[in-house]
Specification:
14 helices; flat; alpha+beta
């Protein structure tokens, strides 16, 4: 499929409903109250007193118009942003482990990803994918910036992928370079097997407009110098696409035919919980605001400031004119202070928060809504089982995409002359999102040692699960040498149990009957 023709609707009409839905998800993710008001805008007088829309339906919290001439006291709780950040942390709090059969390939991959900060890009991608339903990761290059391929993330509201039988066959990335009134300048970057196409369109907010030279904007002028003979594409020299798309979760419940994936809070019920949480916090703050102590003063206590200037009250004055009233008549100054419904509001926000995170697929414990007593890593995993299941489900979508990306990055690296390693598709393992408590691990290893149930090598592997065989052997030999047990350790002799050296009498065996 080539680049779009001139003067076609944009974004593509088939994606318009999903993009509108993404705008709502994005507003919750951003935490911007102005954007929440905008995406939930309804018809009304906008005077803050009208409680129903034009159809007679009561407005929900963020649908109410902003009060005219008064401060908007509505508060927003960034729970959606917290959920997105937690999801990314569960996936990439520790970098995934890439393994290759060729050591040289592994070394070069570590150089590329170490210099480029791949794990930071993955965390960004995972967080945005949680909010918008997916993320695109592309491989590109600029030899003036770095002697390696560059990996960047493109958000789901700026991609138009195409699939055939579940396999992505092409993807168009687009971005707005200029918006002046209704005029919009868009850059389209289309990835196809073996090439990348570029075009610049001058149109409107709803129409792609006409194609103009890439040199018309400084953001694309450098690309023009690298185009091929056709004037629109750059050959990559690799097999496959130089861009992958990774969905957050599937299926998309609202648009079941879509392959874009779904946001964690795409369901309207979850958004309503977010809205109820904001309303609860706003009500709580209103209680605090109204509970400020106030004095009700008789008119005789007020000082006139002159004709037309009103009156004032001196709250530092210590002596007042006598009041002809009994001491218990309450005819002097009266203090008014309302109560704050702390328990009711706290119970409400905890209930709304807990239900929202559980509906998104996470354990309440992951957000501090469960038991906060100090527990071991094993107990954490048990209590956060729902979060771990969601993490594994999302990881299932990330693994094939990352493997494809690594393969094409290494191909590009060789084609561009940055290295001569053999490209390969790696095996990938996600790191543990919950690290074992060092004290608990040490106690476990000590118990195994007392029971003579594990060799020194096994204990080293338990302590350092990320070490390779060479490093494990070096550490094992070092420990055995320091303890004088090079001969006595069963792992070094291949013998185990009674009769093995070091198990039983010093001679290395038991006496015969």
């Amino acid at each position: 499929m080539p680049l779009p023709e001139n003067n076609v609707p944009w974004p593509p009409p088939a994606l318009a409903p999903q993009l509108a839905d993404m705008a709502i998800d994005d507003a919750w993710y951003s935490g911007d109250k102005a954007r929440l008001r905008r995406v939930y805008a309804t018809e009304g007088l906008g005077n803050g007193r009208n409680e129903r829309d034009s159809s007679g339906r009561p407005w929900r919290f963020w649908e109410r118009p902003r009060p005219m001439g008064r401060r908007d006291n509505r508060l927003h709780v960034p729970l959606a942003a917290d959920i997105a950040a937690k999801s990314a942390a569960l996936l990439f709090s520790e970098p995934p482990k890439f393994t290759f059969e060729d050591d040289a390939t592994k070394t070069r991959w570590d150089e590329i990803t170490g210099e480029g900060g791949l794990n930071s890009t993955l965390r960004e991608g995972a967080e945005v994918a949680t909010a918008l339903g997916g993320i695109a990761l592309r491989a590109t290059w600029n030899a003036d910036l770095a002697k390696r391929p560059l990996i960047t993330a493109v958000h789901a509201d700026g991609v138009v992928p195409e699939w055939a039988f579940g396999v992505m066959t092409g993807i168009t990335l687009w971005r707005e370079l200029l918006r002046e009134g209704d005029r919009v300048l868009r850059h389209l970057e289309r990835h196809e097997p073996g090439k990348i196409l570029h075009a610049l369109f001058d149109g409107t907010s709803a129409n792609l407009g006409i194609r103009v030279p890439l040199t018309e904007h400084p953001g694309t002028s450098d690309i023009a110098a690298n185009l091929g003979e056709d004037g629109e594409s750059i050959a990559t020299g690799v097999t496959g696409l130089t861009c992958v798309y990774i969905p957050n979760m599937r299926p998309n419940r609202k648009y079941r035919s879509s392959m874009l994936g779904r946001s964690d809070w795409q369901d309207d019920g979850i958004r309503d919980l977010f809205m109820s949480l904001d309303e609860t916090y706003t009500s709580w703050m209103r209680d605090i605001r109204l509970a400020k102590a106030r004095l009700v003063a008789p008119s005789g206590y007020l000082n006139s400031e002159g004709l037309g200037k009103g009156v004032s009250f001196d709250d530092d004055r210590e002596i007042w004119s006598p009041v002809n009233a009994g001491p218990t008549s309450n005819e002097g100054l009266t203090m008014v202070q309302f109560g704050i419904r702390v328990a009711e509001h706290e119970q409400s926000w905890r209930a709304f928060s807990r239900k929202a995170v559980e509906s998104c697929g996470y354990s309440a414990q992951s957000f501090g809504l469960g038991d906060t007593t100090a527990i071991t890593a094993t107990e954490v995993i048990s209590q956060e089982r729902a979060s771990m299941i969601t993490r594994d489900q999302k990881g299932g979508y990330w693994l094939p995409g990352l493997a494809d990306l690594a393969d094409v990055v290494l191909q590009l690296d060789r084609v561009l002359g940055f290295s001569s390693v053999t490209p390969a598709r790696p095996n990938i393992e996600f790191g543990d999102s919950v690290s074992e408590d060092p004290k608990t691990l040490a106690e476990s290893i000590e118990l195994l040692a007392r029971a003579q149930a594990a060799s020194t090598e096994t204990k080293v592997r338990l302590r350092w699960p990320d070490w390779d065989d060479t490093r494990v052997k070096e550490e094992t030999d070092r420990i055995l040498k320091e303890t004088g047990a090079m001969v006595a350790d069963p792992a070094m002799t291949g013998a185990e149990g009674p009769g093995a050296p070091g198990f039983g009498d010093p001679a290395g065996g038991e006496e015969a009957d």
